[in-house]
Write a structure and sequence with these properties.
heterodimer, A: 409 residues, alpha+beta, elongated, B: 14 helices
Chain lengths: 409, 434
């Protein structure tokens, strides 16, 4: 296919052609970055928690009576909850859990010297101590959550207390951050005025609010019994039973004490908790996808619309070419090639724009660098879209009969 | 002449209905998306208290230890005050009006026995609160500084809570149970709900849609150990009254630039003195005084995602407009023949420009109308999001007018180049070619 006639014809439509190039370039720049952001968000939304999320539900209950014996109340509640058909485990848990948006973090030091340094500085920074997100609960909360011990042992029944805990479990990430290469088992850590022993390493989980800075897996678990008017009960059941189990739990708990409050916002399956936590991310994914599809649609529209015009405008010229021997395929090829040139120029410029846009986003929104392979893939996709959009007008052009050449306009 | 051009434009648009509707659709989508996001940002960054906001200021001290970690999940703990600092601000009396406050959510017990209590949000504040923010009383009045000192068990209810509890608002002197204590009602305020709730602890970030439903003396609430909501941070042992525990907000009202200057100096001097006393560790130059709108900006109430969404929508609009320029250009140039005939018959370049300009504007007007519809649909879907700001996402008249204006301006701008290009068509050449 000789390019010269195409180029010389485009020279007559410099302005229009460059506008189309600009549009294609902008589209590629935005769509490539949008696709990258979608990938980032989708990955975030699917952050694994290590819990048996599919089987868990959480219910928050608030007693209104003063001076109640919380432990007796919890024991009675849990006893009733475990009787609900389908419930395989029920435990009282603390405020903070993965995706609960409630944080319960403690300053912990690896030795007494570090603790003293931290007390003097009134800060944990640069002292060897760290602030660590903590999950707590009653006997068996580890197993109920779906976590398991991968080294050392689980808490024993007598270790569960309402005050200072004698022992703790760490995730592998937290143990590494805390003790480096040292064997964490049996180490003593200092939290405020008391110390606890590391008795084991628990399977991976994530902190309640993700930071995305590589520290999300650093979590401590300790056997502290919830001891408050307001309690959360964790229920485990088969995934399909969760809705029924939640409803039954509300009725059961309300029957045990009609004076307590069980807000509807406090009755959630873990699937709902995850959805609520990542709600903004899913909104963003939806918007980014809508914008990207909208852009591609508008660009395809522009390509097709313009090609349409040019075919109409050149009907006579096409007729003449057909009359002097050009085949239908020649005409089709001509328009496809013309489009390939314009969109090709557009995507070439667009790849540069995409990189520039990514740099801008990196500086303003802490976005990571756009992987380079997005560029050729996006360019190829856009180029193919251009070829497809021009196909209909090009086919119409190829069907122009040679006789048009002899007609006057 | 205008009517004639309008007629021509309509005729021309009708001649290629598919293309016309595609152009209108493109503009409509671009405008609709942009206006949805602009409206959301507009309502989120509105002045929450237009009558007084120019005089309201938020002082900022920095009592944190020198190397206190800054990467926490909840924002800067020095945005709030410690009890001693807040009380020092009030006692110094360097402003016309001033108050310290903190938010709280407590159980309210219905007057009828046997009904379950319910949780409502309200404010613990010092006596100056009501005058400072200009709250209006339907019944009774606010408490006095003497009540503050005496830790009086008195309360002010909002209109809504009074109605909910008593079914009426003339309830001064009656008793309500909030949390574990009983309070005597001193007054009932008219509904008051600035959006966002600018004076509350900003770490909540979701302070849209909240309204305080009760008010209690701060010292009383502190005495009773009532629970405080919002960001609280401490870095040494000691309770809420210690100098190492931030949990309070302080607002002051300053009338003119001189007062503002003096107050700022006062904050720096106070910080320097605290540093000399060994309580503050950081530079006294960290002390600052924010005007209300400046404080909201400092607290970054608008999530980064939202700004990203606005940029996305605007760049979408730009691509749509570039698209329209190309299509109009092709369309107008295709009518070069028609243009040359009109030019040969005496139409000036200006006439041609006007004719095509009107055609572009018409596309813009239609696109704008479609854009309004799309933006309304967009806002409707925003309102159904669970974000706290979602429910206030509504278009007011000014935003409605801006939509149409933006659409017409955009399409006029888009039509300018093609119209100008068409008006440059050389009649003789075109006529000869035919």
């Amino acid at each position: 296919m000789p390019l010269r006639p195409i180029l010389s014809s485009l020279r007559h439509h410099k302005l229009t052609a460059s506008l189309l190039i600009l549009q294609v370039a902008l589209t590629l720049a935005i769509v490539a970055n949008a696709a990258f952001m979608v990938a980032q968000r989708v990955q975030r939304i699917h952050t694994p928690s290590g819990l048996a999320e599919q089987e868990l539900s959480l219910i928050r209950v608030e007693g209104t009576a003063k001076d109640e014996n919380h432990q007796a109340r919890h024991a009675a509640d849990l006893d009733a909850l475990r009787r609900i058909p389908g419930v395989t485990a029920a435990v009282a848990v603390g405020w903070a859990l993965p995706f609960s948006s409630s944080v319960n973090s403690y300053g912990v030091c690896p030795n007494e010297e570090a603790l003293k340094r931290a007390m003097v500085a009134s800060s944990l920074d640069h002292t060897g101590c760290m602030s660590i997100d903590t999950y707590s609960g009653g006997p068996g909360f580890l197993g109920a959550l779906g976590l398991h011990v991968i080294a050392g042992r689980d808490f024993t029944a007598d270790e569960y207390v309402t005050g200072d805990v004698p022992s703790i479990l760490l995730t592998g990430a937290a143990a590494k951050k805390f003790f480096g290469g040292k064997d964490p088992l049996g180490q003593v850590v200092y939290a405020g005025r008391h110390s606890s022993r590391v008795i084991g390493i628990v399977s991976d989980t994530v902190r309640p609010m993700l930071r995305g800075d590589g520290s999300d897996g650093e979590v401590m678990l300790w056997p502290q019994l919830p001891d408050d008017n307001e309690t959360s009960y964790l229920l485990r059941s088969a995934p399909a039973d969760r809705a029924r189990v939640l409803a039954a739990a509300v009725t059961t708990l309300q029957a045990l004490d009609p004076n307590r409050l069980i807000p509807e916002t406090g009755q959630r399956t873990y699937t709902q908790m995850r959805e609520d936590y990542f709600q903004r991310d899913s909104t963003m994914v939806g918007l980014l996808l809508a914008a990207a599809l909208g852009l591609l649609f508008v660009t395809a529209l522009g390509v097709a619309g313009l090609a349409n015009f040019w075919v109409q405008q050149r009907t006579r010229a096409i007729g003449i070419r057909r009359a002097i021997g050009a085949t239908r395929a020649d005409i089709l090829c001509y328009f496809q090639a013309e489009n390939a040139l314009i969109v090709g120029g557009g995507v070439a410029l667009g790849m540069l724009l995409a990189l520039a846009l990514n740099l801008l986003l990196m500086s303003r929104y802490e976005l990571p660098r756009l992987p380079l392979w997005y560029l050729p893939v996006g360019a190829l996709a856009l180029w193919a879209l251009g070829q497809l959009s021009v196909l209909a007008p090009a086919l119409r052009a190829s069907r122009v009969p040679p006789v048009v050449a002899t007609r006057s306009v | 002449m205008f009517a004639y051009y309008l007629d021509l434009a309509l005729h021309s648009l009708r001649r290629s209905p598919v293309l016309t509707s595609l152009m209108v659709l493109a503009i409509g989508l671009g405008i609709g998306a942009s206006m949805t996001m602009l409206t959301v940002l507009h309502v989120m960054t509105r002045d929450p208290l237009p009558a007084l906001s120019a005089q309201l200021y938020y002082p900022h001290l920095d009592p944190l230890p020198a190397n206190y970690p800054t990467n926490n999940d909840w924002g800067d703990p020095s945005d709030n005050f410690t009890w001693p600092d807040a009380m020092a601000m009030l006692k110094a009396h360097r402003a016309d009006q001033q108050a310290a406050m903190a938010g709280g959510r407590v159980l309210v017990w219905p007057v009828q026995t046997g009904r379950l209590p319910f949780r409502v949000g309200g404010r613990y504040a010092t006596a100056g609160f009501f005058d400072l923010f200009g709250l209006r009383f339907e019944q009774g009045r606010g408490w006095t500084m003497a009540d503050d000192e005496a830790r009086a068990r008195v309360a002010v209810l909002s209109h809504g809570l009074a109605m909910q509890l008593f079914g009426r608002t003339d309830v001064v002197g009656r008793t309500v149970r909030l949390g574990d204590a009983r309070f005597q009602v001193m007054g009932v305020t008219s509904e008051w709900a600035p959006q966002p709730q600018f004076y509350a602890d900003a770490a909540g970030k979701g302070n849209y849609g909240e309204a305080d439903r009760f008010f209690l003396p701060l010292a009383t609430a502190l005495d009773l150990g009532m629970s405080v909501s919002g960001n609280q941070a401490s870095w040494k042992e000691g309770g809420k009254t210690s100098g190492y525990y931030t949990w309070l907000q302080v607002w002051v009202r300053l009338k003119d630039a001189a007062q503002v200057r003096n107050y700022r100096q006062f904050l720096v001097d106070y910080s320097a003195e605290q540093k000399r006393l060994g309580r503050f560790e950081r530079s006294s130059q960290n002390a600052a005084l924010y005007p209300l709108m400046g404080w909201l900006e400092h607290e970054k109430l608008v999530p980064g995602d939202l700004r990203l969404q606005l940029w996305l929508a605007l760049s979408f609009l730009i691509v749509c407009l570039v698209n329209i320029v190309a299509l109009l250009l092709a369309k107008f140039l295709r009518r070069s023949g028609e243009v040359s005939v009109r030019r040969a018959l005496g139409a000036t370049r200006r006439d041609i420009f006007l004719q095509f300009g009107i055609e572009s504007a018409l596309v813009g007007l239609l696109g704008g109308l479609l854009g309004i519809a799309i933006a309304q649909a967009g806002l409707w879907s925003v309102r159904h999001r669970p974000d706290s700001y979602a429910h206030i996402a509504r278009m007011d008249l000014s935003m409605l007018a801006l939509t149409v204006l933006l659409a017409i301006a955009g399409s006029l701008l888009a039509g300018m180049l093609p119209a100008w290009r068409a008006s440059r068509v050389v009649p003789a050449l075109q006529l000869k070619a035919q």
